[in-house]
Design brief:
Layout: E1 3-5, E2 11-13, H1 16-26, H2 30-43, E3 48-49, H3 50-60, H4 66-72, H5 74-79, H6 86-98, E4 102-110, E5 115-123, E6 128-134, E7 142-143, H7 145-158, E8 173-178, E9 181-182, H8 184-193, E10 196-198, H9 208-215, H10 228-236, H11 242-247, H12 259-274
Parallel strand pairs: 1-3, 6-8, 7-9, 8-10
Antiparallel strand pairs: 1-2, 4-5, 5-6
Length: 280
C-alpha cells in the first residue's frame, strides 16, 4: 500500500476515502470526486507528501465553483491568519458568537493565585468558558503535553472566576484550540484531566473543521480571488470573515481592487456564505 508523508514527518497508508471526504465537504459533485480521485491515484508513489496530493487535487478543482475551491483550501487558509495569533483569536471569537455565545478577546482575569491573560472568553446564561488559542503557521507543528498541562493548571486557578457581571458567568471550562493538531499524549492527558481540546480534526466529531462548516463562517484567507497581500491588508484592518465583506462591501476598498475584481470577490464571498455542506 502506498505510504504518504505527512507534514509532521510521519508516514501513513494513503486513504482514498480521506481524499473523497475532503472533496465532499468542499461541495464537489460525485463526478468531480470520481475524476479527481482517479487522476490523483495516477501520481501516487511511496513517500509522496500530503501537500503534493492536496496541490494536485486543488489544481484539478480549477473548473469548479470558486466557493468549492475555497472550502477545499480551508485548512491552509487558517495558516493565513498570522503571523501573530491575534487574527486567529478574533476568528474563534466570531465562530463562538455564531454558536450563540457573547465573547471577549484578550481579557485579563484574576484567579485564586495569579492573574491570567486569556485569548477568548465566551459565555451564555447556561455556560461560560475560556479559550487558550495556539496558532501555528506550519501544518507539521503540534500542541503538546506541556501545553495541555499548563492550560489545565490555569483552569484550576480560574475555576468559577467571573467573566461577566451576571452570576452565571463563572468559568466552567477552559478550551485549548489550535489550528493544527495535538500530540496523542496531550489528547490522553486532556481526556483524563477533563480539559477541553479543539483542533482541526479533534475530537472526531464537532472538531474545528466541523464547527466552521456548520456555522458557515469562513476567514477571508479562503478567498481565491484575492492575493496574499490583499488578504493581509484586510486582516490588518480587522476584516476577518467573508460575511463582513458581504455585509459591508465598502471594506474591500482597503484591498485596492478594480470594480470588476471587487464584483468577483463579492460573488465568491456571497457563494461561501450562502452555501454550507454537511460534515461527514
Amino acid at each position: 500500500m502506498t505510504q504518504v508523508l505527512k507534514a509532521d514527518g510521519n508516514r501513513e497508508p494513503f486513504k482514498v476515502e480521506k481524499l473523497k471526504r475532503s472533496l465532499r465537504r468542499a461541495g464537489a459533485t460525485k463526478s468531480e470526486i470520481s475524476d479527481i480521485v482517479s487522476k490523483v491515484e495516477k501520481i501516487l508513489h511511496d513517500g509522496i507528501k500530503t501537500q503534493e496530493i492536496y496541490r494536485h487535487a486543488f489544481e484539478l478543482l480549477r473548473d469548479s465553483d470558486a466557493p468549492i475551491r475555497a472550502r477545499y483550501s480551508l485548512r491552509r487558509a487558517l495558516f493565513g491568519l498570522g503571523p501573530t495569533g491575534f487574527p486567529f483569536e478574533d476568528f474563534l471569537a466570531r465562530l463562538f458568537e455564531r454558536e450563540g455565545y457573547t465573547t471577549k478577546t484578550r481579557v485579563t482575569l484574576k484567579g485564586r493565585c495569579a492573574e491570567h491573560e486569556l485569548d477568548v472568553a465566551a459565555y451564555t446564561p447556561e455556560h461560560s468558558f475560556l479559550v487558550e488559542a495556539k496558532f501555528h503557521s506550519r501544518p507539521g507543528v503540534k500542541s503538546d503535553l506541556q501545553v495541555a498541562m499548563y492550560s489545565f493548571a490555569r483552569f484550576m486557578d480560574l475555576q468559577n472566576a467571573p467573566i461577566c457581571q451576571e452570576d452565571t458567568c463563572g468559568v466552567k471550562e477552559l478550551m485549548v484550540v489550535t489550528n493544527t493538531k495535538f500530540t496523542s499524549t496531550a489528547e490522553k492527558y486532556a481526556a483524563c484531566a477533563g480539559l477541553a481540546l479543539l483542533s482541526w480534526d479533534y475530537p472526531k466529531h464537532n472538531n474545528l473543521h466541523d464547527r466552521i462548516q456548520k456555522a458557515g463562517l469562513y476567514p477571508v484567507t479562503v478567498l481565491q480571488s484575492l492575493s496574499q497581500s490583499q488578504k493581509r491588508a484586510l486582516i490588518a484592518r480587522g476584516v476577518i470573515i467573508c460575511a463582513d465583506l458581504v455585509a459591508k462591501p465598502q471594506l474591500l476598498r482597503h484591498a485596492h481592487l478594480s470594480k470588476k475584481r471587487t464584483e468577483r470577490v463579492l460573488a465568491e464571498a456571497e457563494g461561501l456564505c450562502a452555501r454550507t455542506t454537511t460534515s461527514e
